[in-house]
């Protein structure tokens, strides 16, 4: 009996942490890297999370903001022979909120018209509020 109780005490918290109901968790991914392989891994993880019914939000800053620009392409990677830009567009098609950071456009020669359809410009106060929400998991690449 003590062994059963001990096992319950050890494993019950792990079960609670793994949670079977992920509906209250959101994935907030901030991508800043200009490295295409890093961008690809970030987009793969965002896509896989969306496939598992996790609400995903993507913020593109710094060099990664180039992914948001219409006409800018990125290299394809094996084994899927897809690019970070293609996966990003797939996320947009699924309704994922994708934005460039609020200082990206003002510090480049791009305007909002240069952004790929479905990509907006983040408002820092709103992003800060979103980041504070309970259940938002924050990842950076």
Kindly describe this structure:
- With 141 residues, the protein is of the alpha/beta class.
- It has 4 helices and 5 strands; from the N terminus they run αβαβαββαβ.
- The chain has helices at residues 2-18, 36-51, 84-93, 124-132, and strands at residues 26-31, 55-60, 97-100, 119-121, 136-140.
- A 5-stranded parallel sheet has the order 4-3-2-1-5, sandwiched between helices.
- β1 (26-31), α2 and β2 form a beta-alpha-beta unit.
- α2 packs parallel to α3 (84-93).
- It is globular.
- The N and C termini lie far apart (47 Å).
- Count of alpha/pi helices: 4
**Mean pLDDT, all residues:** 87
- Termini separation: 47 Å
Report strand %. Answer: 15-25%
Following the backbone from N to C, one meets helices and strands in this order, namely HEHEHEEHE
Describe the main β-sheet briefly: 5 strands, parallel
How large, in whole angstroms, is the Cα Rg? 18 Å
Low-confidence stretches: 1-22
Q: Sum up the overall morphology in one term.
A: globular
| Share in helix | 25-40%
Number of strands: 5
Structural class: alpha/beta
Strand order of the largest sheet: 4-3-2-1-5
Which key phrases capture this entry?
single chain, 141 residues, alpha/beta, 5-stranded parallel β-sheet, 4 helices, 5 strands, 17% strand
């Amino acid at each position: 009996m003590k062994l059963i109780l001990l096992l319950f005490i050890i494993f019950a918290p792990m079960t609670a942490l793994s949670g079977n109901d992920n509906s209250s968790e959101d994935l907030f991914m901030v991508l800043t890297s200009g490295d295409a392989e890093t961008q690809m891994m970030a987009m793969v993880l965002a896509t896989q999370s969306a496939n598992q019914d996790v609400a995903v939000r993507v913020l593109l800053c710094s060099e990664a903001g180039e992914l948001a620009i219409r006409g800018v392409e990125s290299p394809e990677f094996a084994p899927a022979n897809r690019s970070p830009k293609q996966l990003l567009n797939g996320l947009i098609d699924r309704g994922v909120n994708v934005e460039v950071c609020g200082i990206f456009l003002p510090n480049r020669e791009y305007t909002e018209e240069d952004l790929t359809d479905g990509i907006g410009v983040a408002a820092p106060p709103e992003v800060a509020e979103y980041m504070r929400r309970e259940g938002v998991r924050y990842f950076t690449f």
